[in-house]
Amino acid sequence: MSKYDSKYLEDKLKKELQTEYVSVTDESDGCGGKFSAIIVTPAFNGKTLLQKHRLVNSTLAEELKEIHAFSQKSYTPEEWEKVKAQ
Amino acid sequence: MNRICQSLLRQSYQNHRGLVAGASASASTPSVLSRFFAADAATGEAVDKATLDKLVRTNKVVVFMKGNPQAPRCGFSNAVVQIMRMHGVQYDAHDVLQNESLRQGVKDYTDWPTIPQVFIDGEFVGGCDILLQMHQSGDLIEELKKVGIVSELLKAEQAKPEDEKAK
User: Fold this and answer.
1) pLDDT, tens digit, for every residue of B105-158?
2) CATH class of B2-23+32-160
3) Where do the coiled-coil regions begin and end (chain A) (predicted)?
4) How far is the alpha carbon of A15 from chain B, nearest alpha carbon, in Å?
5) Omega before B116 cis (within 30°)?
6) What is the pTM of this model?
7) Quick one: pLDDT at residue A10?
8) Which domains does chain A have, with CATH numbers?
9) I need a surface site. Which of A29, A43, B86, B95 has the fewest CB within 10 A?
10) ipTM greater than 0.90, yes or no?
11) Residue range B7-33: average pLDDT?
12) Is B99 helix (H, G, I), strand (E, B) or coil?
């Protein structure tokens, strides 16, 4: 359906947001309409949850027009350490 | 049949609009857990900022979703409904599938690309991911507390014996 795959989205997020860790999973069985992402970057430092998500949404504004469902978990490196520890 | 439903819903919606003007009337209907307005469609007007400014304040919590709380028509909307149910939150829900101008209107209003969208005390809080994360971190309980809603989860927590609270 959409022309995007997880690799493309990971590369773009890595480049635009200088991510320390990024993982995008295609949940659409290959049609490219549904993704979930874990995004870790210092660019999120000092931002509220809403601001983090807005940053990702604006980075992928063009792609999200075609991607039907996009779910994100966005953490600062510090938050990510805590999440991993759990 | 559909038309009959619509006209019924339209009526209830208009009643609701009256409520907003009257303000205090909502307190007299505590038996309704969540109010749902499907007939936004009936207005036919473009949904502008001034209208949304009012809509997001008709209750402490207002949700724009696909489908209605009894029958969500999207997994993300359903997740929000389930979170609200767990916390025992009474909220107003609007079905954007009934009204394309509301769907676009609310997206423009928040500059947020997806549905569902949740408002607490008139402030845009986020979509499904954010609600889920707030639910998991406990922030949702705090946010609800700020507007005078005591989460059912908090009540359950406080009712527990001390040794179980660590969980």
Assistant:
1) 999 999 999 999 999 999 999 999 999 999 999 999 999 999 999 999 999 988
2) alpha beta
3) none
4) 22
5) yes
6) 0.78
7) 97
8) 6-80 (3.30.300.90)
9) A29
10) no
11) 42
12) coil
In the chain, the amino acid numbered B126 is G
Q: Which position has the higher pLDDT, B41 or B8? A: B41
> Residue holding tokens 């009959």?
B4
- Partner B contacted by A49 (CB < 8 A): yes
**B126 contact residues in A (CB cutoff 8 A):** 49-50, 53
Chain pair A-B, CB pairs under 8 angstroms: 29
User: With left for phi above 0 and alpha for psi between -120 and 50, is residue A29 left, alpha or beta?
Assistant: left
Judge whether B129 is closer than 8 Å to chain A, CB to CB. yes
* pLDDT confidence of residue B70: 95
Is residue B136 within 8 Å of residue B87, measured between CB atoms? no
> B65 touching A, CB under 8 A?
no
Q: Is B127 on the interface with A (CB under 8 A)?
A: yes
Classify residue B28 as exposed, middle or buried by CB count within 10 Å of its CB (0-12, 13-18, 19+).
Answer: exposed
Nearest CB neighbour to B134, from listed A49, A57, A69: A49
Name the amino acid, one letter, at B135.
H
Of A53, A61, A64, the CB nearest to B130: A53
Residues from chain B contacting residue A69 (CB–CB below 8 Å) = 75-76
Give residue B163's pLDDT. Answer: 65
Nearest CA in chain B to A83: B137
Task: Choose among B111, B125, B129: nearest Cβ to A71.
Answer: B129
Percent of chain A with pLDDT over 70: 98
